[in-house]
Write a structure and sequence with these properties.
By secondary structure, the protein is α/β, with parallel strands linked by helices. The protein is built from ten helices and eight strands. Strands 3-2-1-4-5-6-7-8 form an eight-stranded mixed sheet, sandwiched between helices.
Length: about 250
């Protein structure tokens, strides 16, 4: 680390759990962020600010006026731009010290597996179940940790799946039947700060995993009711009959 980096990240380095060693781990890390929307925006911005060395941004969409209420990585002047390009510009202005790679495409099964396998941690910040199941399957197959978040209406949830932990469930354990799932925030709406809250926690869980500190959300599902401002934590066991992760154990 050079002098500028020591100063930029000094408030983190002060933390005994992080220290210089943890910050160096962050600088050497590679994080794949799927989705540059309401969750991916704050997650990417905080990881960039905190010095997560390489961020791979994946999204095949373009910025729309209706995105701006919650997707804070984009601005009014970015309407019509590819989201990954808009996000890239914002993150480089925020912290030119990090490396950013963009993927403006819907990743195929093989492409997704290669990107996931190359990452230290994957953040699922997507807004549809088909993508979430595909990302989960790739993480299970490549044994890559997955930080999964979701937000709709006034309700948010977050958990961490770690295929290297034998007792860890996967996303398919949480939702056994994809055919019954179809609702998105585009259909039901979402309050803006909720996505920021969940996305920030995704960034925090990612940093904890990279630095090997604290207690992760592996095996636990954290739920937020934004209307009552109540948090609930529930145990999330591994499904021994899960069609995705039981066969790979």
């Amino acid at each position: 680390m050079n002098d500028d980096q020591l100063l930029r990240y000094s408030r983190q380095i002060m933390l005994p759990e992080i220290d210089v060693e943890g910050q160096q781990k962050l600088l050497e890390s590679r994080c794949l962020i799927i989705g540059m929307g309401g969750l991916g925006s704050p997650a990417a911005m905080y990881l960039a600010a905190a010095g997560a060395g390489t961020l791979i941004l994946n999204d095949f969409d373009r910025v729309d006026l209706s995105n701006l209420q919650r997707q804070v990585i984009h601005g009014t002047d970015d309407i019509g731009k590819e989201k990954v390009i808009s996000a890239d510009q914002t993150l480089r202005a925020l912290n030119p010290d990090i490396r950013i790679e963009i993927r403006h495409k819907r990743l195929t099964d093989n492409e997704l597996n290669l990107e996931v396998e190359a990452a230290d941690v994957v953040l699922d910040c997507s807004d549809n179940f088909s993508t979430r199941f595909a990302v989960n399957r790739a993480c299970v197959e490549t044994k890559t940790p997955l930080v999964s978040g979701a937000a709709i209406r006034f309700e948010g949830q977050i958990t961490v799946f770690d295929p290297l932990t034998p007792s860890s469930p996967c996303y398919n354990c949480l939702y056994p039947n994809i055919d019954e799932l179809s609702e998105t925030c585009a259909q039901s709406g979402v309050i803006a700060p909720l996505t920021g809250t969940i996305g920030c926690i995704q960034a925090l869980e990612t940093m904890k995993f990279i630095c090997s500190i604290g207690e992760s959300l592996v095996g636990r599902l954290l739920l937020l009711d934004g209307l009552t401002m109540e948090w609930h934590s529930m145990q999330l066991p591994k499904d021994p009959a899960c069609p995705t992760c039981s066969l790979s154990a």
